[in-house]
Amino acid sequence: MAFTKKSVILTLCVLALNIGFCNSALSSIVLHSQTVTAGQSATFSCMSSGSGQDPTITWALVYDNGTTISNNLASSYTGGTEDGNDGAITSSVTFFVQSSYVSTDSNAPGVRLWCYGQDSVGTSMSIYTTLRTDTTTSTASLGGTCSSTVTCSTVNSYCNTNLSPSQCNCNTNYYDSNGVNVADGSCIAKAGLGGTCQAGNDNSCGTTYAVCSSSSPFVCVCGSTFTQSGTICVPNSANLGESCINPSKSCPANATCSTTCQCLSGFTASSGTCVADSAAYGQSCTNPARLCVDEATCINGICQCNSSFVYSTSFGSCISSSASYGQSCTNPTRTCLNDATCISGVCQCGTGFVYSSSSGSCISDTATYGQSCINPTRTCLNDATCISGVCQCGTGFVYSSSSGSCISNTATYGQSCTNPTRTCLNDATCISGVCQCGTGFVYSSSSGSCISDTASYGQACINPTRTCLNDATCISGVCQCGTGFVYSSSSGSCISSSATYGQSCINPTRTCLNDATCISGVCQCGTGLVYSSSSGSCISDTATYGQSCINPTRTCLNDATCISGVCQCGTGFVYSSSSGSCISSSAGYGQSCINPTRSCPNNAECTNGVCECSSNYVYSSSSGTCISSSAGIGDSCTNPTRQCPTNAVCGTNNLCQCSTGYVTSGNTCSIPGLGQSCSASVGCQTTTSGSTSITLQCVNNVCTCPGNYYTLNNACIQKHALGQSCSSSVSNSCLDSAANCPSGIANPTCQCNSGYTATSGVCVQDTSSSCPSGTNSPSIVTGVSSPAESTTPNVWVEQTCYTVNLLDTQVMRCKDTKAGNLRAARWIKLPNSVVVASTGSFINGDRTNPNLTVSSAQASYAGFYICQLCYANNFVRCTNSSNVQLIVVGTAITASTVSISPSITPTKGSQVTMSCGTTPIGAATSYTWFKGNAAINGANGATYVISFVQASNSGSYVCRATNTYGSIDSSAVTLNVLYAPEFSLPGGGTTDVIVHDFNAGDLTLTCDMTGNPAITRYYFYDASNTLLANITTNTYSVTSSQGYQTYYCLARNSVGLSNQLSFEVQEPGGTGNVGAATENTGIGTGTIAAIVLGWCRKREKVEQQPPPPAAKPYIPRTIVSANSTVTRKDVGIMMDGHDLPVSEYEEPRYTTPRYHLKPAKNAGPIISMYDDGYEQPRAHQLPALDTQYLYTDEEPRKRHKKKRKRRHREHREPSPRRHDYEPAEPVNLPPSDEDLVVVPGKQNFMDL
Known about the structure:
Helix content is about 0%, strand content about 40%. The chain is an all-beta fold.
């Protein structure tokens, strides 16, 4: 709501501190009052007058009860500041007006706005005004918002405060002529029945239940379920007992109108409805009382079935609870009679029964001899047949009364042949009523007949037992010839089963002797054999190396030749004892080249007795030759596997091809150049522009020039500054994005675009913040006035210049002062760009609303426009307005780009600089750098420097450039950090300790490293620095023969070689700080008592030194160290010493194994044992050694079967901890100046 300023001075309250009068430089202050509106901002000004130094002015808001709302409102000095010593100054304050601050009642208390002034000498004054709202009232039409100050202007309307916000509605019995509370409508009285109403508006009828008829004439009538009764609408139906006439009404079902609604005959009133006098099953039979029908009885007020009846939903009545054959037995469930069964809801005969219509029941579906077998059809049992409707015995059968069945009329051996009489079969005779064999016959159970009691050759002679004829013998139940004989059909006798060379061997078949074969019925030498008269036998017709090949003539085998009657190897062949043949004196790949010695093919050499490809060659199975192990681009790299060139891989087509991100250049793979496909992981080449070296950028997978360069003739040319010569054949040859290289002229130079001015070598948009003088007044262009058919509009524009802030909105107003019928309208941006309205940026500016709204103003919108209004279609009969200038204040960022120097593929540890450029140049006021989607902490400048780049810095980077008018993100640029292979162990360090049992198999070492680009070679070494493998995979298998030692690996890629990764392979149970191992390896925790080590120190010359002992108290063992820094010394092992007190001494016992000493670890030294039972040494970490003694031997100790005597030990250099192990009684031990005796304490061994 508008407010009005008043130039009056309100209540002036002068407050002098500590004095009662005004005697100071500050003479007065003036506060202008005004009305305010709740929910809006209000601005007030306070002015001082006086002399001397200007006073200080402050503001406060205070309730009328003295409670302070704010005692220091934010304010500013808006006048008088040009002279600070005249005592005159103006202060302004702006604040938001809360609804609790204001009141419309001028007599009511309200919030006070105070203005305080104080000068430099301590004089202060204050003035206040009470905040008031504008009391001016207004009106609202139908549907408008109303309040205590806004009344409803429509006649017969009121302010409906039940709505929020309150709204102007028509009074009761009135309706809105334009619809439901539509603005500018009127409130019309509603019509009664028969009165004229508004078509389609039932609300125009005032009678309850009345509607406006659907067809002309439109009058108020009662609704579809109502009828007119006088001047009201009543329902058109009546209940039982109610009047059904005047007006006529319909009665309920089964009732009739007889002045009132009454039930028909046969029906009784029940709860307002008419029900039948009789009731069926399930219906109510009381209240009113009704007769149950269809075998139903009234039970508990409901009709239910009588006893022996059940309710049938299909019949809708009560039926018998039992059913006969063929009747339904479900829905409801009923009992089947006469042996019937309920099957599929019908009473039927069950399995094994059939229905007999004569008996009306289910009977068995089978019948015995003499029973009926038809009506119904039944199966005859016991081999009977249904004949003439009765079960009887058929042809070939007779009835047996004893079995009650029909049996065969013939009998076999052993069966009864009387009662009934039956014929005996198979040569049997009926004897004593039983079929038996006669004289000269015996019964054969296999044939089931009577046969002769003698048998010929080949016939059975047992079961039954029969006599063999013609010298045959009963063998295995058959008459046969005996061992060494065969049957001769010609003689009918048994003859010898073998024949010699030249004898008959068939009829009967006989075995030929001496390797002869039966050929054409005679024993002869078969295929592959010849007859040797000397041996009288058939021998092979072939001979092997060194055998005779004549008398008889024989063929030499296995490439041998018959030379001087003996098979020998010919020219170009040598004898192989392993194959037993003559083989070529030249061997192929993979073939043996020794035993015998043979020459290998080209590019192969004899290695370990086999022809293998020479170094840098591999075997090709397709060509059968050794070919180079290195393949060129496009060459096969599989079968066999061959090494592709640098930056190439073996592709899916099994040919060498350049890795992703590299391009083919002859037989090599190189980093892509300008315009070639690229990948972020590899990047692009470094090229030159003039004398400057630049790195191409991979953008959208294509190598492009950096942001400050443009592409011309496949080269990167540095963009040109303002005034420099440029190339008009490309669109971006100028460095400044607001500049262009004009075409069509000779020697073009970079110039600023229209609307921009060159300032300090940069194109700066013309940003005049104010329009020229005299452009803020309306302008009219008068159109044609006559003749009428040629008239054109008078075009009026509000101003001829507007200013709008970037991204803000401005309305440029245009109209026809003739108020004619516009047929077309538009705005045109000069020189000839038609503004496309309603695009979101430009709204309206057409014939329905010629005012053009510029929304979210952009810098490109600045320029001159005209408004064109027309009285004819297609922009005919038009008038153009004066030029209207639009000035857009502010500069937006249109683009941002990222460049990386020196390269997007830096090497780890180098420095990388990323630069963020904007269009226009220098338009950004702040920057934010992102890696992926995360902002980089502290990276907020135009450049982002990584001083020591790491692999973790790889990724995509985006620069967000920001100024007052928004932000814009650059395209992502990917940084791909290259680094040599490296590794990281979980516990740190460079050595991985691996415990492995070689009895379980070989050990696979994995050289687990990462690098960028990919690793191309892996190298494995053993402890002696011997190269074990130079391969492309990162695994190597260690065998048991290589054993427990330290191995290490290195890896290489195009950047460099990795550091050394070591693998210390240990045996299970041999960890460093545990003690001696407990497995069965020859040395156990309970068997080691001491290690006597040769002490590495130079022997001292001592006067009167005793002679060396004749024998040491241990047997020396030569040791061999795995480490060249360990001196070879003698080692002795004392066994089973731990169960003796330290004060006692027992001479060591020795075993045959050899021992291997290694440097000490975390506890005691490591000793490994070799013996015949293990291929690998079994390592044992000894416990920390507690006490050291020096001694010498004067004479050999004597062995005693019994307990040894205690002797006093003399020590030249007692251990610092000697008292811990001091024997209870001194023992003399012969000293030695060259041996260090190390004795673990007894408790140490008990702890192991």
